[in-house]
Design goal:
4 copies of one chain form a homotetramer. With about 220 residues, the first copy, chain A, is mostly helical. Chain A has a domain of about 140 residues: Tetracycline Repressor, domain 2 (Orthogonal Bundle), CATH 1.10.357.10. In chain A, helix 4 packs antiparallel against helix 5, helix 5 packs across helix 8 and helix 6 packs across helix 7. Chain A is elongated and about 60 Å long. At the C-D interface, helix 5, helix 7 and helix 8 of C face helix 5, helix 7 and helix 8 of D. The first copy, chain A, binds a DNA duplex (21 and 21 nucleotides) through helix 1 and helix 3.
DNA sequence: CATGAATGAGTGTTCATTCAT
DNA sequence: AATGAATGAACACTCATTCAT
């Protein structure tokens, strides 16, 4: 490797690293204060630079949100695809998807919060159309998964599929608002307990059928 | 009744009515566009008046949000108190609380959306301390209800109470984001299905022992 | 005329008048400092209001330039059309056009300066395409007028028409840079002398033909 | 010649050459986009370097404009002085000055455009006082030349000298805005035709007395 | 009750300039 | 010589708010 080549790589890598740092900071601030309520100066303050300096790295505030969200979504969908490609049962697929979702929250918590809170607003702009597309794809995935589960006899047939879809979707993603990486419960712990609630409910198991209820 | 007196009454009543109208409009816009992203002018446009004219009715944009949220919370807590005062079993209380929550969503959808999306941000200001207090009260209520349920043998004991609390809280409130009063599913329908999911899960019941498996 | 109607007219008229006042101020500043070098605040200062207040009246700095230029061009072309419609000889038409041009300078001096100095720059934006169109129309008018003059034997045939066109165009418009309404020379005075120079040159008349040159 | 010495010479010469290159580029961009509307980055882009790198060669954006204009003016005045020093007739001097002006435009077109469009604005700063001085000197030169011409019977006496001065000055310099070196008309062609217009006008000569009018 | 014009602080963004490398 | 990251002041523009009418 020639010195020149190493230099070029070095600066390109350093640049990418700085971008990533700044994006992480921006994501944190957007998530905690809300995208609209966050000024570019607040982001810059959190990064220890001046407002205008951010524009050396990014074209606009919108561009930062764009990069934060699309990076997160790309990674999330890649993980989902791996699960879906395995051709498991509906139940196992559901477990896999939920587990991956919590892993996404673990790795991209601020991005998930932004996605959750701002995507309705952002999606009105041309640039963020992929948010709408992601939402559609998400819905299709869940509805067909739930349908498959009912067909396989794994899931109850007496529930409205649209409702169940929203129930799971919301519950999983909204958890990003309180989840703390490195906290008492790991992402996998939460996934496990959430799955238990989704699948079996919070009700104590009824006495076995051998002991019929005396009403 | 003297004309003067009638006028005064008429004016006072009309004034209150106008306030309510304007607040409803403001709540709608705040909910759909986000509080920070909503300008006073947008609210005024939606109400068919000019921006400055809102200040005849309200002291500030913040005052509008305040009145929207506190009205909603007051009514919600009154309903919760009625349920809690009945001294029912944990299971029945849970049903009652969830049902009342969906009734709140039905009656105050925009307020609930604002509460959901903006309260973290708003609660940093002195004026909105009651949001923090409401959150605390909410948490206490749920934790003691869940504990009671476990004691009564109604709820599973193997789940983290804090997690279950957040699970239910989030799932219920986030529904305000998609619920449409007068839509296909009524608030009570949704409450019923959500309760079914909370309590029994989405998994199909295993075959009962009366229908023995043919091995 | 009902009071209501008079009120409506009154406020509409007052509004239009205020706009015109502010536009005149803006034109003055744009003309004297250059459009790009003029900040919105400078315009506002000159108008005795704050920077932001201009946006109650105009959408943008560009919108002000637009209104200034299009108002001027509309009036100028209307005047030109009146001259052209009279069907005069080329010489008389030229006199009329030049006279109208100096009247335009008299009435819209700042607008003419802006047109002269900034139109190349502004015309790159979609909004100002009419500047290009006006330039084309202007060129066509002059070229056909000069051609007509040559045909009629009124103008010399040994000059490059494109050159003569630019010569006259530039000389007339650039005068806006130093012309002062109410100064020593009136717009009509200047028009008369400019016409003398265009037509007959600055050279002293040669001795009459009765005294043929002895070379 | 020691290597050290050759290096030093090479460096100094190369440095001067690079400056000249960069100044030519800057002049081009300033002329085509306007000084205020031109960012340092645009100049650097046109030169194929980064914005900050220009500051190795020049102290500031203003310094570039300064060097461009003063170089042009120095050369122009040197040429004018040569013409004036020849002690010719007013008519021949005028021809010489106009011809030199078009040669200046040919050699320094961008500088002339900048001078034409920006000098009023730049001349407000201390650094550019020489622009005002040049203007004064220019005016004196022309006024005395015109006066001489009238005295000599070469120029008409019925025209306002100030007006004629401005007429010629503007017409000559403004031509820099459309002149293209290497175009259809050379600088000398244009000078010749402009002189014809200045001196004799664009009007066809009246029929000579040998061809008497038939009344 | 509402309007219309204004305020003034603040927003996202630009840009001339600096400087360590 | 040139880069790349940063500065800091300024810019066009927005917006919650005020107030005379």
């Amino acid at each position: 490797m020639s010195p020149r080549r190493r230099d070029a790589e070095g600066t390109a890598a350093a640049r990418a690293e700085r971008r990533a740092e700044l994006l992480a900071t921006a994501a944190e601030v957007f998530a905690s204060q809300g995208y609209s309520a966050t000024t570019v100066r607040k982001v810059a303050d959190a990064a220890g630079i001046l407002g205008g300096s951010l524009y050396y790295h990014f074209d606009s505030k919108e561009a930062m949100a764009d990069e934060i969200l699309s990076t997160f979504l790309d990674e999330m969908w890649a993980a989902y695809e791996r699960v879906l490609a395995a051709g498991l049962s509906a139940r196992d697929t559901l477990e896999g998807i939920v587990a991956e979702s919590f892993r996404s929250i673990d790795r991209h918590r601020p991005a998930v919060v932004i996605y959750q809170n701002e995507s309705k607003h952002l999606a009105t702009s041309e640039r963020f159309q992929y948010l709408n597309e992601s939402r559609r794809r998400f819905q299709e995935m869940w509805l067909s998964l739930l349908e498959q589960g009912v067909r396989e006899g794994a899931f109850r047939a007496d529930l409205d599929p649209g409702l169940v879809y929203r129930f799971i979707r919301d519950t999983v993603w909204v958890a990003a608002n309180w989840y703390q990486p490195g906290g008492r419960l790991s992402a996998d712990d939460i996934a496990k307990q959430y799955l238990a609630m989704f699948l079996e409910g919070i009700q104590a198991s009824p006495p076995t059928s051998q002991e019929p209820r005396t009403s």
